[in-house]
Write a structure and sequence with these properties.
Layout lengths: L7 H55 L6 H6 L8 E6 L2 E4 L5 H4 L13 E7 L2 E9 L6 E7 L1 H51 L15 H47 L7 H32 L7 E4 H11 L7 E3 L4 E4 L1 H18 L3 E9 L2 E8 L34 H11 L3 E6 L5 E8 L14 H9 L3
Parallel strand pairs: 7-9
Antiparallel strand pairs: 1-2, 1-5, 3-4, 4-5, 6-8, 9-10, 10-12, 11-12
Helix pairs in contact: 1-4, 5-6, 6-9, 7-8, 8-9
């Protein structure tokens, strides 16, 4: 079906162009047909009047006693390229050397008795209009062949002009369709842009209602966004308030259990195990609440540090050192300067490292490279990888992989990867999971990099720089 494989703009332009082409072709055919009929009729009447005039002159000349038919025919001065033939008393008198049978293939002299006859004919490839005027009851007649070459040339020019007009009308219709599609689709583009800004987190974006025809749609859309924004704000406040309110009594419990833990050696073995279990669960709960608060702050755009430009190499080196991991794990192919929040991205990097230690057999490498205007950071682990069906789901809240990956260093909160995805998205980037060449999982973060070269390299050789050549092909 027409239109399924092309966009709406192209369909509008196509329909305008086809409509203009159809109308222009119909008009061109109609104009040409009417014009040809009118000009042909005019030419026939002109040729008939001319032939009647010449026949009347010929009668008057032949009425003079002793006048030869050839002299009478020669007394007529016809227009250029007009051929005269006189059939008189069974003989042919002509102004041309051509055979009358060649000149008048469509006329029978015996049929010309009482009235004039006009027929189109072709003589040696040239169009003529043959007019026969009877001169008497015995078949005597004057035959006049008027050329139609000029008329045919005029019709040819008219046909070319009409074709050019039809093509111009089709082009004009397509241009009109282009303009109309732009005007018609402008509200849709505005709607798409507003929707995209809302999807990216700008919940204050609204559709203008300047167009009266679209005022109802704009009002309904804006009302829906207002309701959505209010609901999201309520959920964020509730989420943050509950997490904050739970944190205070939880801190009290952790402090109390810490005091009890000092006397653990004095407790019975069973009570000691119970105390250890309570300590672990309280730590897990505190970490869960901490992640919930961090997630709520990230979603609300409430960051603890200011927006600044920084080097990825420096930030990841600092993160590895702070997390008590070897800077030798880092390989920098191309450094990049990022505009963002250091603390937010540092926490996201730590969560990926912890995830590799907990579920992937340990972190094996961190690689920083650049692809065009984007900075790419790869986090590799030595685990069994992540099943393809889980590679999107693991970034959801409280989601875990169902195949292959198992915790080896305790249980997580189920929010670490969700916090990574939210933090990276807040910086205009994305995080993906796929298989690492040679086995294991690779979590790849892509972030927009600042234009221009990265920060100058330090004068002293760092472990990262020493490993660039050795680990670039890992």
């Amino acid at each position: 079906m027409i239109g399924r494989g092309i966009g709406l703009r192209k369909r509008v332009i196509l329909f305008f162009g086809l409509g203009a082409a159809l109308i222009s072709v119909i008009l061109a055919i109609s104009v040409f047909t009417i014009s040809r009929g009118y000009m042909m009729g005019q030419r026939e009447r002109s040729a008939e009047r001319q032939a009647v005039t010449h026949a009347e002159l010929l009668r008057n000349v032949l009425a003079v006693p002793g006048t030869a038919p050839a002299d009478a025919l020669g007394a007529i001065d016809p227009p250029i390229d007009t051929v005269l033939l006189l059939h008189w008393q069974g003989e042919w008198i002509k102004t041309s050397s051509a055979d009358p049978a060649d000149l008048l293939p469509a006329l029978d002299p015996t049929e010309i008795r009482t009235e004039a006859v006009t027929v189109p004919t072709t003589v040696h490839g040239h169009p003529y209009l043959a007019v026969a005027i009877p001169l008497g009851p015995d078949g005597d007649a004057l035959y006049e062949l008027a050329p139609l070459t000029e008329l045919r040339a005029t019709l040819r020019i008219l046909r070319l002009v009409l074709i050019a007009c039809a093509a111009a009308a089709t082009l004009a219709g397509s241009l009109l369709g282009f303009w109309a599609a732009g005007r018609v689709l402008a509200p849709l583009r505005q709607l798409a842009g507003t929707t995209g800004r809302i999807a990216s987190g700008d919940l204050d974006s609204r559709l203008p209602d300047r167009d009266p025809e679209l005022a109802v749609i704009a009002t309904s859309f804006n009302t829906m966004v207002d309701s959505l924004q209010q609901r999201i704000e309520r959920e964020r406040r509730f989420f943050g308030d509950v997490s904050h309110e739970l944190r205070t009594p939880l801190t009290t419990l952790i402090t109390s259990v810490a005091i009890l833990a000092r006397t653990r050696d004095d407790l019975p073995e069973r009570s000691g195990r119970a105390l250890d279990l309570i300590t672990d669960e309280l730590s897990h709960l505190y970490k869960l609440l901490d992640d919930l608060l961090a997630l709520a702050r990230t979603e609300a755009g409430l960051h603890q540090d200011a927006l600044e430009a920084f080097s990825l190499e420096e930030l990841i080196t600092h993160t590895l050192t702070k997390a008590e991991r070897s800077p030798e794990l880092l390989t920098v192919v191309d450094d990049s300067v990022i505009l963002g929040h250091k603390l937010v991205l540092e926490r996201a990097f730590v969560n990926l490292m912890d995830n590799a230690d907990r579920h992937g057999g340990g972190l094996t490498a961190v690689t920083v490279r650049r692809v065009g205007a984007r900075a790419v950071i790869d986090f590799d682990d030595a685990g069994p990888g992540v099943a393809p069906t889980d590679r999107l789901r693991i970034f959801e809240r409280f989601a875990t992989s169902t195949v292959g990956r198992r915790s080896t260093t305790g249980t997580g909160t189920g929010l670490g990867l969700a916090l990574v995805a939210e933090s990276v998205s807040a910086h205009g980037g994305k995080v993906e999971c796929h298989d690492r060449p040679g086995g294991g999982a690779r979590f790849t973060i892509t972030l927009p990099a600042e234009p221009g070269p990265a920060d100058p390299a330090p004068t002293s050789m760092t472990p990262n720089q020493r490993n660039r050549g050795r680990n670039a092909d890992r």
